[in-house]
Amino acid sequence: MDFGEAFELVNGIVISNMGRSLRNPEIAILEGTWNGFTYEQIAHVSEYSTNYLMRDVAPKLWKFLSDALGTSVGKTNFRIVLDELAGKNSTLTKLDIPVSAALSSTPALTTPGLQTDWALEGYPEGLATLRQWILKDRCRLLSIYGLSGAGKTVLARHLVESIGDQFEQVLWQSSIPPLNQLVERIAGPDAQAPMADPVSAFLEVLAQRACLIVIDAVESILQPGQLAGHYRSGYENYGQLLRRVGELPHRSCLVITGLENPAEIARLSGQSSAVRALHLKSFSETAAVAILAAEQLTDQNRWPDLIRCYQGNPAALRIASQMIRELFNGNVEAFLAQQSFAFGSINSLLKRSFDRVSQLERDILFWLAGKNQPVSLAILQTEIPLVVNTTEMLEALESLIQRSLLETTQATDGFLFLLQPIVKEHVIHQFITQVCGGSPEGHRDPPRTLEPMIELGASTPKVARLSRWFQNQFEPGWQPVERLFEGSVQPAVRLRSAYHLRDETLIKRFKSIRLDSTTDDDAGDMTSRAAEDVIAEDVTVALLVAVSQMVDQTYQICVQVQPARQATVLPDGLRLRLLDGQSEMLAEIESQTQDDFMQLPYFRGGVDERFNLELVADRVAHTEQFVI
User: Fold this and answer.
1) For a Cys-Cys bond, which of 172, 483, 523, 607 suits 99, CB 3.0-4.6 Å?
2) How far is CA 627 from the centre of its chain?
3) Banded pLDDT at 47 (limits 50, 70, 90)
């Protein structure tokens, strides 16, 4: 049994006992429960609050089903009870109550305390556009796509509710089976078995009667880790189906929703075509404001900033609003001051799309997240440090646009590419996770102290043995790289410097180095020293070392110097030197004005080889010793 069949079964019971169909919040609970979601997750992907679903709708729904079926029904056993019921009484599974009957009779609902329908207010032209495409333009294949939480499913339900009675049969498919099973469900007793050509059988059904078919969450049959729109093994015939549904004349309409479009939609859609795609980008400001008002947030003058931070995504705005109310007493100004907007459930929303991207798309996102301004295609192709031809680059950019992770803006000489703030912060979060992936999971650093620590005595810095880093053995002072990002005033700038180090196989550590100008050698008259202006101020920087093990058992080493966590640029004239075991200088680099990092050329050596790194600011020097 799939959810469509379960829906028809439960809806039949409701109609028989209560004289009405299932209502939207009840459908949200049943579908979320069927898919194993918590109430919080159901709230995040629907238009209702967690409290409303958990405290109001759910208890009444489970009590009604328990009374109607004569057995206890709840969230934990809902699927089990229905499976047993269907097995005992097969006539129930054959109740011919199409989804259209349920949805078309469902009254417009509002969340308590909010006198508006977010799906319709949020996309005021969306429903009208879809209705026109189907009823007036006679489109045969439609797509509603956008980020998770944008409201695709809710808008599709309103569409079915609005025009379902214009069709002879309506089918809503949430869990997508192999195509032959879907055809059997549509065709019913008329289905021929075995079904040698399910595509032709599907089209034959569409030719016989006017059907409105909704396939929800089409990404479940699309292959992650590749460019958008490619099918998982065993579902390739859906591509042929979509192409023929869009090209051949019939009286039916197939609507799909998803995080991305199948390749056929992208290829066939157009304003004069029978195939169209509706991209849900951002809620209207009116509906977004209603979400914030429902949580009774303050600082209304900052609400537009909050809405922009979350790209007008209704689910993200609900999650953020609840946190602001619970942790910041509704104070939007205080929340925005934290400068951290991608967290917990919001990261989970975006991760659904991010986890689907190919490696090239991922690298492009990482590079764009390090830019503070939109960039042109020419700059992207010229500056990104990737070996990729023009065709591959264009295909990857188009795929990211299809996945709603990349946007374009018009410029005088063409289009510019940019990441929306919430997407950018999520990408930086994912970059930090990846760039720090070389830190072995088994290693845990000691807790950081909040009070000043008393040093029992001076100690000589321990020589760092890099080959032992691969066994989780790190010398004191060498910290995980993610701490460089913690509290950084410009994490995007630090991302640019670490872009080359995103390989998860690299072991990466940094050490804070303070170049103290007040050493014994420099003791003297401070007034005369200031007048002479020859001694630099105290400088604190981060010395970052990344190590990879090569196939020939040697080790390749990358060394950077980055600003301290609260700084954005290095001091002018800071020098970094690479010395061999005999203190002979092998390489030297010097920071220039406004440098946000500097990096030595890559070098490598074998086990037990020694080298030193020396940092020099004016007459102050610091040396770190290493053994491979």
Assistant:
1) 172
2) 41
3) low
- CA 222/CA 242 separation, integer angstroms: 13
**Angstrom distance (rounded) from CA 424 to CA 406:** 10
CA 577 to chain centre: 41
Q: What is the CA radius of gyration of the chain?
A: 30
The token duo for 222 is 């699309």
Q: Which residue type, as a one-letter code, is found at position 6?
A: A
Q: Among 325-329, 386-390, 568-572, 617-621, whose mean pLDDT is lowest? A: 617-621
- Which positions ≥6 away from 31 have C-beta within 8 Å? 3, 7, 174
Cα 586 to its chain centre, rounded Å, is: 44
Q: In whole angstroms, what separates CA 559 from the centre of its chain? A: 31
Q: How far is it, in rounded angstroms, from Cα 22 to Cα 294?
A: 25
Cβ 561 vs Cβ 578: under 8 Å? no
Q: Are 599 and 545 in contact (CB under 8 A)?
A: no
Burial of 181 (0-12, 13-18, 19+ CB in 10 A): middle
Strand 479-480, strand 507-515: pairing = antiparallel
Question: Count of CB atoms within 10 A of residue 325's CB?
Answer: 18
Angle (CA) 98 99 101, round 5°: 70
Cα angle vertex 508, ends 502, 513, to 5°? Answer: 125
Task: Tell me the sheet residues that pair with 585.
Answer: 579
Tokens of 292: 């914030």
Distance, CA of 628 to CA of 621 (rounded, Å): 23
Q: Which of 604, 602, 612 is nearest to 582 (CA)?
A: 612
The pLDDT tens digits for 404-439 are: 999 999 888 778 999 998 999 999 989 988 887 654
> How far, in Å, CA of 565 to CA of 540, rounded?
10
The helix/strand/coil state of 147 is coil
The tokens describing 41, both together, are 């997750």
What 3-state class would DSSP assign to 305? helix
pLDDT for 189 equals 60
- Among 15-19, 140-144, 383-387, top mean pLDDT goes to 140-144
DSSP 266: H
Q: Which residue has the tokens 């009840």?
A: 26
Sign of CA dihedral 460, 461, 466, 467: positive
What one-character DSSP code corresponds to residue 231?
B
In this predicted structure, what is the pLDDT of residue 539?
Answer: 82
Residues 213, 141: Cα–Cα separation, whole Å: 10
Answering whether pTM is above 0.70, one says yes
How far is residue 469 CA from its own chain's centroid?
32
Structure confidence at residue 455 (pLDDT): 45
> Is the Cβ–Cβ distance between 291 and 159 less than 8 Å?
no
Q: What share of the chain is helix, strand, coil (3-state, %, to 5)?
A: 45, 15, 40
Q: Note if the bond before 194 is cis, omega within 30 degrees.
A: yes
Phi, psi of 545 (to 5 degrees): -125, 125
- In whole angstroms, what is the distance from residue 222 CA to residue 258 CA? 10
Query: What ranges make up the beta strands (E) of 517-619?
Result: 539-549, 555-563, 575-580, 585-590, 598-599, 603-605, 610-617
Question: What is the SS3 assignment for 114-143?
Answer: CCCCHHHHHCCCHHHHHHHHHHHCCCCEEE
Question: Which pLDDT tens digit goes with each residue over 530-545?
Answer: 433 433 456 889 999 9
Classified as helix, coil or strand, 546 is strand
> What does the DSSP 8-state code read for residue 601?
P
